[in-house]
Structures are given as C-alpha cells and as structure tokens.
Amino acid sequence: MADEILKVRDLKTRFFTEEGQVNAVEGVSFDVRDGEIYGIVGESGSGKSVTALSLIDLVESPGRVTSGEVWYRNTELAEEFRDENPEAVDGEFVDVRRLPKGVRRSLRGPSFSMIFQDPMSSFNPSLTVGEQIAEAVEVQRRARANPRRTRSRTQGYGLGKMLVDSLVPSKSYVQDASMDRAVELLEQVGIPDPVDRADEYPHQFSGGMLQRAMIAQALAGEPDVLVADEPTTALDVTIQAQILNLLRDLQRDEGMSVVMITHDLGVIARMCDRVGVMYAGEIVERGTLEDVFENPVHPYTQGLLGSIPDLADPAPRLQPIEGNVPSLIDSEMGDRCYFADRCPKAMEDCLQRIPEFDAEKAGASDDEHRVRCVLAERQYDESQALHDGHFEEQEVAADD
Amino acid sequence: MTSDAEAAPDAAEGREPVLSVRDLKKYYFEQDSFLDSLLRRETQSVKAVDGISFDIQKGETLGLVGESGCGKSTTGETLLRLREATDGAIEFEGDDVLGMDRDELKAFRRRAQIVFQDPFSSLDPRMTIGDILVEPLKIHDLPAEVPSEQSKGEVRREKAKDYLERVGLSAGQIDRYPHEFSGGQRQRIGIARALMLEPEFIVLDEPVSALDVSVQAQVLNLLDDLQDEFGLTYLFIAHDLSVVRHICDRVAVMYLGNIVELGPTDDLFDDPKHPYTQALLDSVPRAAVEEQGRRVEPLPGDVPSPRNPPSGCRFRTRCPQVIPPKDVEIDQSTYREVMDLRDRIESNDLNLDTVWERADDENRSDKPAFKREFRAEFFAQGLSGENEATVERALDALAEDDHDRAAEILRERFASVCEQVRPVLQSGSHPAACHLYEQPERTEMAAEAPADD
C-alpha cells in the first residue's frame, strides 16, 4: 500500500465578512497517498475550493485558516525543523501550517502546485504564454538555489523598472534557458508547435489549449501534489476528455499525487481512487469510489447520486434533494447536523452535533468508509423522525 | 447551398408541426460598419448557423445539443426573432415568422417564450418578483376583460401569485426582490415569467446549466410537470447530454452551425450514427463505478473557427472515420495523418523551421534528413506503395518550400468525398448528415468549392 504524502487533520477556514463569520471549511480531514488521485466533490458553496486554497496556503483576507494541521511528508524539512520546532515534526512529516512563512511559500511549486477552473482569467493577457511559464520555471530555479528567496526578478514594479523596460523591451524578461524549459513543458502537455505557441498571447489560445498551458505552468516546479480545482468545468466534453487523459498520464509518468476538486460526479468516477463528499464545509462521507458510489450511507450522498440523470439509463423521474444549500454564516448555522433541514431521514438525534462515524466498525484505520451521519451507526427509525416543517417553525420562532 | 429545403428530414407521421424550420441561416458580419466600407475592408462573415432544418411537433421536447460555439443558442434566439435571420424560413403553426410585421410579431411572442440560461442576469434587480411577472401582461395589455369588481392590476397580481405557486415558490414572496432568492429559485421565477402569457412554445436556453445538481433535478422535474399541465412544446437547448437524454423526446446534435444528426432520444443515444455524436457520447463521464479509469479516445484538436469553416463536412478535420477515395487503399489512422498534414499545409499553418532545426541543417539542403524528420513528426507508421510515392513527392515540394504544389500533389490522390460534398440529413426518423450513410444523388447537389461564399 502506498504511503501518505499529505495528511489533513481538522482543517478550519473562516471568512470574517461584514455579514458575520463564514465557516467555509469546518473541520476537514483526509489523506492523500503517493501517486493517487483523491477526489473532493460537492456543490457550489460546499467549501471544496476553499479547502484547496487552504491546502496550499492561498486563502486571502478576509479569510484565514484558523486551525487544523496539514502534515506533508518531506524528510529534508523534517530533519531541518526537528530541533528548531519539534511540534511541527512527526517522523517524516512536517506540519506545513507551523512552518515559517518563507518556507511555506517556498513549498509552492516544488511541493504543491495548483490549477484553476478558468484558464482565461488565470493568465496575464499582456504577456506571452511562454513567458509566463518561463517565469514559473525561474521562480522554481531561484527557490532551489536559495530556498528562502522566491521573489522572481520580474516581480518588481516601479519607475526605474518601467524606464529600463521601455528602453530594453521585454527581451530580458526571462532567460533563454527558462524559455527553452517552458517550450519543453508545453510539448509535454501536448501542445502542437510548442516553439511557435510559446510566443503567442493567451487570447490566441483556445480554452482547452490554455488549460494545457496552465498545467504546464503548474508542472514547472515538479510538484509532489497537484491541486486541480475544477480543471475541466469551463470546457466542452470532448476537450474535457482530452484534459482528463492528460492529467492521468502526467500523474502516472511523474508519480504526482493529485487532489481533484469538482462538482461533477462523472469526472470523479473516471479519475479518482478515493473520494470525499463535501457539504456545508464538512466532508460528510469519504471512502473508496465503490464505498461512496455503490454503498452511499449519508442521505446527502444518496441524494446527490439520485439527482443526476444517467446517460445510459434515464430514470423516468429524478429524485432531487429538496431545499437549497445552507448559508455558512456562523450565527445561522446552529449546532446540529447541517443537512438535517433538507434530509428526508432527519431524526431527533440529528439536532445534536453529528460526529464522524466509521461505516463499517469503530476504531478502524483511516482507510475505511467514514460517514458523518447517525445512520452509519443505526437504522432509520420513523418514530423519531422530525415532523414536516420542523425547521420552518424554528425559523419563525427565531424571527419573533 | 446544399441543404434540401424540400423534404422535412424529421417528418413525424400524421402530426402537424408547431414549428418548422427550413434552411435557417444566421451569419454575423464583421468589419461591416460605415468606416469599414469607406476603408474598403472586406466584410467577414461568421457562420453561426449555416442552413439547418427541423420540425417540432406539438407537445414534444426537442433537444438541441452541441458544444460551445456550435450555434445552438443563436438558433433558439433566431427562432423567436430576437435576432434577425440571414436566410431561411420559419413557420409557426402555418404563419411565416420571418415575414411578420410589428403587430404580428407581438402576437407571436405571446405564444412563444424563452427562458434564459443565467438566472442572475435575466431578472431586473430593481423590480420585485411581482413586477417582473406582471410586466409581460402589461406589455400585451392582458387580460382583455376583467370581472367588474376587480381592477386589471389586481387580476394580474392574482395571476402572478398563482404562477409563483405553480413553479414551487410561495405567493407570499411576490414582493421580494431577485437578490433574495437562490439560483434555483430565480430560475423558477424565469420560468414563471415565461408562463404568464400562457404560451404554446417555449425555448429553454440552457435552463439548468447554471444550477447545482441537486437543484437542477428540481427544475427538470418542474419543467416536466409544467409540460404535462399546460401541454407545452419545448425547444431544450443544452450541452449536458445526460440532461438532454432525461428530458427530451427527440434530439438534434449540432456541430459548427449544422445539424449533424437528429432522431428520437433513445435511438440517438443507443445507436449514434454520426462519428461526432459517437465521440460526444463517449466523452461524457458517467457517475458510476464502471467509469473508473475508463480511457476515452478523445477527438483531436479544437472546433475550427466558424469564420472559415472547413469545406464539405464541417467535422472532417477531426473525424476519426474520414472516408478515403475508393481507389486508394490506406488504413484509417494513416489516412487521418495525411488529412491532418493536408489541412495544415492548406491553412498555411505549417512551420517547417522546427523540422529543419531537427534535421540539423542550416543551409536547408539535406533533403533526406528533412524528409526523415518530417515523417517522424507526422506519421506514426510507414506508408507504402503509391501512397508512399505521393507523400514523397509532396515532401520534395515542401523541402523546396513550395507549399502550394505539395498541397496540390496530396489533394490529387487523397481528396476525400467528405471535403468535396457537404452531407445532408436524409429523410426518415433518424437521419445523420454523414457520407458514411446514404446520401442523395450527387447530381442534385452542387459540389462545394473549398472556400464557399
């Protein structure tokens, strides 16, 4: 069995907005193994993208990762910090969140890398695609030469820089060696005529090609873990098939681990070995693909699978989940199972905070099928069911 | 023009179509302004919809699927004359839609409505839900007569409340503003607005693609129920094939402004005829365990630009089953490679510098090395016989930088029926516009020049 490369424990990310504190990620735990594709699936607002950003420390104000641990296996870092910061080291693992800021930043690229949903808005329209990839290559090279200094030469702005740039146009923007590497990367991700295409601007690329270019950029640092946030959502199905094949090939050839975040259960099914289902900031069910797709325990997972029309077997009628995705504002969330108000099998016990159960047996390893629902432990009992309109009445009472 | 305007390709037996479209075209013109004409710039046409024909029967749901840019939304909007058609004919219950004057058009729009894709931008944020729903009635000055004890406004408001409940919202929400609703609820409001005029026909332009799956299922069920309740006819435009399979009675598949296949939903999904439909269906990831690790052979490349679409069959540049000439013996994958090479040469998209670089010859005189490198890049397997000789001659021309002659040499031997003749939909219930299936006699059709118009 492959070892874990990443162990996420009880991660919490909060956004402090004017409307109140938003609990976007609420105690998420999962493991990613060497060379696997781990899937996180959920609807919009379930916290899956914020989970991705939290992993690689890209959450921006007003958001903040407030607690939790991200254990990353890296013997070098473990050795380096064993004496200096013993709390942050556990065997071969280091807790990324307890490392100094500079070190955390230097991990972006060679350790973690990310691709985003919308390639059109992720590239700078005023630089060529080749330059932008070469820039990533240079940042990585600098980082390797001097791990504490990751700012690339190209990041400086100012009057002096502007004067120099206008006198000596962007020829000096990136070094030739980096540009050559960028062309190699473009070729690796299947872009025809990489030499010519490297000199083109993002608007000259189609959506699928640009997504390939973004993958090339993410590969520049040869990352251990690639976080892919909805990498094919903006693409047509035939292009999506190309990109999924590419990701799978790269993952196999480079031995990367991939965290695949998507709302599309079909993409999860094609790509992933193990999967976590997110709802309202929590992973409500996780396990292998078979566990989750064939024997779903959580009513939300069941509802999600029942809502999608199947291409091969059109059901006469879909079984949607009633209601809407809840607000994640702390003061409105209440101390109960967050799915209870939409759940067809809500019971009295669901008004308590629901812990994560092991669907098979208690005390098993993390490999097991885990569910955050009382139904993992016992059968649905109709006599304890909440009567219809329970939550509406509560709402009315709260308003008064 | 090659589409047959005579035979309805999808005539269902015995029923009168509600809507019948013949050879509809919608071109957008670029560089078409006064300034451009002063500067004598040539206008460029973008062929968004390029000659499509179909019928919609009463009470059915016709699906229109295709990838982005294939012209499906333009079709929907042109049908309702939200955009003016460039050419063709549209008949709605016997009336000529394209020939209608202002008053007729207003009457037509009472009977044909549209629901838009984006529930966030299609509702005016400054109007209450009540105002939004009542507005169509005001425009059409409905209802014509009201009971004496009620004012028109009251009747309209009652009706708005009634429809809010029918789409699954509560009448009490009538005075709220759009921002107070979620995406799914707004889409329900958009549907209620379309229903207020009691239309017979509704164009649903990607009505669920902005919604989450659990909410999407609610809206699909609602659309189903409303169709039963009001006897509506739908044109359902979507890119999600699973949704289309679920809700549609018949499906038309579009590619680059053309309908490539049309048929009853089950026939089309169980037995897709056109290579594009086959590839499209194969690409869809299914949410099932069997899907794990399935590797699809995706279509190569991207959709060509509608500014300059390929001659003949629009799909031929990516088709895995492009048809070689009868007298040429060549296996399919090699033929695909030859055709790709030809496309590159003919579209001036072939850069020989890199090949010369690899041949490591700066003077460009070492032709054998050039040809070796070229073959390594473009052909996975070797060619043989006459095919080999032809490619050899073409490469000689390329080595001398004579692209036109190379293109000519290759065209002479390898020209496919797919690039010469634009295939049309046959008659019958499940036609496919592809040369792999029976096509009308060639004499009926003018062979298309490589660059038409």
What CATH architecture label of the largest domain in chain B applies?
Answer: 3-Layer(aba) Sandwich
Strand content of chain A: 15-25%
Give the overall shape of chain B, derived from the CA principal axes.
elongated
| Assembly status | heterodimer
Summed over residues and divided by their number, the pLDDT of chain A gives a mean of 85
Distance from N terminus to C terminus of chain B (CA atoms, Å) equals: 10 Å
CATH superfamily of the largest domain in chain B: P-loop containing nucleotide triphosphate hydrolases
Note the total helix count of chain B.
16
Describe the structure.
The complex is a heterodimer of chains A (400) and B (453). In chain A, 34% of the residues lie in helices and 20% in strands. Chain A is of the alpha/beta class and 400 residues long. Chain A has a domain at 122-222. In chain A, the strands form two sheets. An eight-stranded mixed β-sheet of chain A has the order 7-8-9-3-10-11-13-12, sandwiched between helices. In chain A, helix 5 packs across helix 7, helix 5 packs parallel to helix 9 and helix 7 (176-188) packs across helix 9. The N and C termini of chain A lie far apart (57 Å). The mean pLDDT of chain A is 85. In chain B, 43% of the residues are buried. Chain B has a six-stranded mixed β-sheet, with helices on both faces. A four-stranded antiparallel β-sheet of chain B has the order 2-1-4-5. Chain B has three domains: 1-93 and 235-311 and 426-453, P-loop containing nucleotide triphosphate hydrolases (Rossmann fold, 3-Layer(aba) Sandwich), CATH 3.40.50; 98-199, 3-Layer(aba) Sandwich (Rossmann fold), CATH 3.40.50; 332-415, no CATH class. In chain B, helix 4 (129-139) crosses helix 5 (152-166), helix 13 crosses helix 14 (385-399) and helix 14 packs antiparallel against helix 15. In chain B, helix 7 links the parallel strand 7 and strand 8. Chain B has 453 residues and is of the alpha/beta class. Chains A and B meet through helix 10, helix 11, helix 12 and helix 13 of A and helix 7, helix 8 and helix 10 of B.
